[in-house]
Specification:
9% strand, 455 residues
């Protein structure tokens, strides 16, 4: 009996050791890596994209964003005009006949886009999406444009201007960048006031709160599907939780004049932030945050660090509010990914997909895919850089980078025996399309003229 037991124990140990050996993932990919990559990429190319974050539009359309770049901002290498990949983009999208962007050549491209703009109609940007197999696209713009098809492009409106109802001269003077940003926030608030037929600021905080809530509800009726904060450009992402009386007193003190102290302004903003988040929850509008490094010489990496949002993201009062960390927190992308363990927190990889080369972005995706793959979404952050290099080329670079980096990350995981090829394709569908389609409900179910459905 004892011998039998020993024999069985030895046998099961041997079996489990063998099982373990065949099931344990390897730190190195196998010889099948490049074939696995090719197979996965072909299938990934056929998956229609749902773009969680972009700024589609022509280069002279100032509504593509609620802010503008400060003068002489530093551009990262890949997003400079002389990146030869942009030539490839223009050839793919427009059969661009040149191999560089010498001014006389770039004019060919700029003229073509001017002609598309002058012709009007929604077919032009639809055709860009079709060429890149993008099904649905969230457009983070000050206001939407008639040349964007509302069946394909859905509006993400801005909320930051509600932070600046008072005399902003100290804010505007604080840095050269704020000198660009804050007047644009004032302009945005003035447009919202006009939209809601408010001639002046409401007399008390209750009135201002109503104005904020009603504007958000009205924006939703105008097609808004989410609300966006680019607050990281202007202030810390750490929001305190001041009592209403405090905000009430600050509003009473400054609504008809006087320059608020920095501290008063920040308390007021922290309070209004919570009104906006509460209303977003009531309206079932996901809340988007710029959560990565930003442009300009005065962007604070410390204040813009996504971890500053942790007290809000983990606040049980907001468990019914959906939060989306745009740009996946980069360069604090692991922190952002770990925050998506919270059930109502998601992220997208916009910006990273333009700024990082596929080899670098592959590492990010490999990490994300093995944490919470049901919480990550594709995004481009496509933006019209100048007259020649537009949102169109920017869509191309983000889509291509994402598809190749994703195929690379998944091929490694398959080849290392971490996941099966079927599982890899399931994760690809979640990230490129299905997570966003589920999050925003019926948007991607809208009838498509182009490339809906898996090919
Ligand atoms: Zn953006």
């Amino acid at each position: 009996m004892k011998r039998l037991f020993h024999l069985l124990a030895t046998l099961s140990l041997t079996l489990s050791a063998a099982g373990l050996a065949s099931a344990q993932s390897s730190p190195y990919p196998g010889a099948d890596l490049s074939q696995t990559y090719d197979r996965l990429l072909a299938k990934i190319n056929a998956i229609p994209l749902f773009d969680n974050h972009s700024h589609p539009g022509f280069s002279d359309d100032s509504d593509v964003d609620a802010m503008a770049a400060p003068p002489d901002e530093s551009s990262v290498l890949r997003l400079r005009d002389d990146n030869p990949e942009f030539v490839a983009a223009s050839k793919f999208l427009f059969n661009y006949p040149y191999d560089d962007f010498k001014p006389e050549h770039a004019k060919w491209l700029a003229d073509r886009k001017k002609a598309a703009e002058a012709a009007g109609g929604q077919a032009y940007f639809d055709s860009i999406l079709d060429k890149l197999n993008v099904e649905t696209c969230l457009a983070n713009r000050a206001f939407m444009a008639p040349y964007l098809n509302p069946k394909r492009f859905h509006w993400v409106f801005f909320a930051d201007s509600f932070f600046y109802p008072f005399d902003n001269r100290d804010q505007t003077a604080s840095t050269p960048d704020m000198g660009v940003y804050i007047p644009l926030q004032e302009k945005m608030l003035a447009r919202y006031k006009k939209q809601m037929n408010e001639d002046a600021l409401p007399a008390d905080l209750a009135g201002f709160e109503n104005f904020v809530r009603n504007t958000m509800a009205d924006n939703q009726k105008r097609g808004g599907v989410a609300v966006k904060f680019e607050a990281a450009y202007f202030r810390t992402l750490y929001f305190t939780d001041p009592p209403r009386e405090k905000a009430d007193a600050i509003y009473a003190k400054y609504h008809s004049g006087g320059v608020p102290t920095a501290e008063d302004y920040r308390f007021f903003q922290d309070y209004i932030f919570r009104v906006i988040v509460d209303q977003a929850g009531k309206l079932k509008l996901p809340v988007h945050f710029h959560s990565a490094v930003g442009i300009g010489d005065y962007f604070s990496l410390r204040q813009g660090n996504v971890l500053n949002l942790e007290n809000v993201l983990r606040d049980a009062r907001y468990k019914n509010v959906t939060f989306v960390l745009l740009h996946g927190g980069w360069p604090y992308e692991r922190e952002a990914a770990l925050l998506t363990a919270v059930k109502n927190v998601y992220l997208d990889t916009s910006l990273q997909s333009e700024m990082l080369y596929p080899s670098q972005f592959k590492s990010v995706l490999k990490q994300f895919l093995t944490l919470y793959p049901d919480k990550m979404m594709f995004g481009s952050d496509a933006f019209p850089f100048n007259d020649a290099l537009g949102a169109e080329e920017s869509f191309w670079i983000a889509a291509g980078t994402t598809r190749t980096a994703l195929a690379g990350a998944l091929a490694e995981l398959v080849s290392e025996h971490a996941i099966s090829e079927d599982k890899a394709l399931e994760l690809a569908h979640l990230y490129l399309h299905d997570n966003a389609a589920k999050l925003y409900g019926s948007l991607s179910a809208a009838p498509q003229s182009g490339s809906g459905g898996t090919k």
